[in-house]
Structure prediction request, 404 residues.
Amino acid sequence: MQKDAKTWLIGVSGGPDSMALLSMCLEKNMSVAVAFVNYHVRQQAEDEEQYVRDFCGKHHVVCHVKNDPFTYNGNFEAAARKWRYDFFKACIEENGYAGLLLGHHEDDLLETYFMQEEKGIEPAYYGLKEDSVYEGIVVRRPLLSYTKQDLVSYCEEKGIHYFVDATNNEDIYTRNRIRHQIVEKLSRTERDLVLHEIKQKNAVKQERLCRIDAYVQQKKIAIEMYRKLDKEDRFTLLFELCKDIKHMSFAERKDIDQILLSKNDFKIPVGNQYIVQDNQSFFLYEEISPFCDTYASISDLKIGKYVGYLIEEGKEGINAVSVTEDDFPLTIRSFQKGDSINMRFGTKKVNRFFIDRKIPLYKRDIWPIVCNKDNEVILVPGLGCNVTHYSIKPNFNVVQYIEM
Prediction:
């Protein structure tokens, strides 16, 4: 563990791991501050808080404490993790610290790996990374080469008091069960074999990520290229494509993969966005809301960009329409089921136009429709105007516009 000129924040719980980390940093004369979180769910929490405060005071270390009432919904461990990490982040940003140091050790790394394996997920990284980032802050785990027992022995040799969380002995949590039933029973040789396996898996994942990254950076991914990739590459590509939106489970990736392999037009929900297809490629798309704009007169129709469409200068074609003042107020809105237009060759259902012209699914619900004051459809961009609103000198054109 190298000495750093900047001040680092250490997450300290009062247990042997974090107390060993804090002591090691002080031995190296590192500039550090401490952050302690009290959830008020265990009786000894108050004693732990006071001990950490006293230890920091004795060694002239700034100690940040969060002991607000902790409330949560759902999984306690997940909520508690976010609670403390958000606190760490706030401390770092408010005080200009270099980043966060955590006392995770080899046992934690192994437990995390076995949990990943048990859940059948393919994580962004197997086990724990020594260096990572949480919402823009640097997180370092300098003790991953130490075992839990190494850190306990260190504290005892140095005469450093530490607390043992009694709930760690309960197997009601998955991590505790894996700790007691698997990790603690591994021999040194078995640990090394698992650590080698983790290293190999991460090396393979890194090589795959480098290969897949070239496709993801293009934003639009050719469907035929995707279908030629092996399963692992396809799943990794989907994970990377959607990693900024949400965590995608293995089951979700499997379902999406089947759609991409078998269909040629789709609109697949992923978080608050969609994976959509257009022109033999697929990409992420954030859907715009249905729109409805009213114009009182011709002078209100300004050339420019609007939500879902463009108004352009009038020129003959399938996007053009001629209007008179009798048509106003005019409405430009998104497509509605049942829309149809009366053209020279007869009435045409707009939905049929979508099918005939192979308009991608994601464009259909927000296709612009122009209506006159009687709510009569007088223009469907790409199809044309109705029989009574055609001329060789149209007033304006309307074109669908989706900002990617």
Remarks:
- The chain has three domains: 8-186, 189-285, 292-401.
- DSSP finds twelve helices and 21 strands in the chain.
- The mean pLDDT is 92.
- The radius of gyration is 30 Å.
